[in-house]
Design brief:
Lipocalin; ten-stranded antiparallel β-barrel; mainly beta; 245 residues; 2 helices
Length: 245
């Protein structure tokens, strides 16, 4: 995942002259004040992320780069990376792997994600509408360490790709640099679901430098994902800076 974030930064350094009149490139970095809620279990009954594992709000870095072009039938592409990582201290109300109920634990839960989005833009004027496929690669990890040394640590990884339907709608106020945007990606299958929704406002200067801010909500229900069950949401405000080449 760190390599992917480095790739995004490297690609964002492409000179503007190289993409002029050929590829429309936008790259940016954001901070997300993420608050996780919900439950997680590994071969047993669930523990609540906040009440039993003690996970709270954190601020994490992410980034994206999009490339749009005029070639017919060839989709546009966007890469993004989202770091979701929280830790805290709590007490189990259900067994987690080899750690028994009632044990005080320190928990580290990661739900890092890389998104590869292929999309078309049926509308691309004052109103912009994108529609396509988002392949979200979830790189998850749950590590629990007992605070009293009573049991060996449990470290369980769960990762894999999840395909989502992607759409994005934006409206630009002409001659102001101001725009509003709503974006969503979702799928539901066999009792599982995942959706990722965000919306906000942006300002882009005539030099291509811009800022944006808004709110993001993500919900995951993954059953038996490498023997891990997750039924959780992550939400909170975000702020970003970007450059439009």
């Amino acid at each position: 995942m760190n390599r992917l974030l480095a790739l995004l930064v490297t690609m964002a350094a492409i000179p503007a002259s190289a993409s002029a009149h050929l590829v429309d490139v936008t790259a940016g970095l954001w901070l997300w004040g993420e608050q996780p809620t919900g439950d997680i279990s590994y071969v047993g009954t669930s523990n609540n992320i906040q009440d039993n594992l003690g996970l709270g709000r954190s601020v994490k870095l992410g980034g994206w780069i999009s490339l749009e072009h005029p070639v017919p039938l060839l989709p546009n592409i966007k890469f993004s990376y989202t770091q979701v990582s929280n830790n805290g201290d709590g007490r189990l109300v259900a067994d987690f792997g080899g750690i028994q109920v009632g044990t005080p634990v320190h928990s580290q839960i990661n739900l890092n994600q890389a998104d590869i989005v292929l999309y078309y833009s049926p509308l691309n004027n004052i109103v912009k509408w994108d529609l396509g496929l988002d392949v979200k690669v979830v790189d998850g990890n749950a590590k629990l360490t007992t605070l009293n040394g009573a049991f060996s640590p449990v470290n369980r990884s769960f990762s894999g790709p999840v395909p989502l339907i992607y759409t994005n709608v934006g409206v630009t106020l002409p001659f102001t640099g101001l725009s509003a945007n709503a974006q969503g990606a979702a799928i539901a299958y066999a009792g599982n679901h995942l959706w990722d929704i965000k919306g906000g406002l942006s300002y882009e200067s005539r030099f291509g430098i811009g800022i944006s801010g808004g709110y993001r909500y993500e919900e995951l229900k993954l059953k038996n994902f490498n023997q891990v069950n997750v039924n959780a949401s992550v939400r909170g405000p975000y702020g970003a800076v970007f450059y439009h080449f």
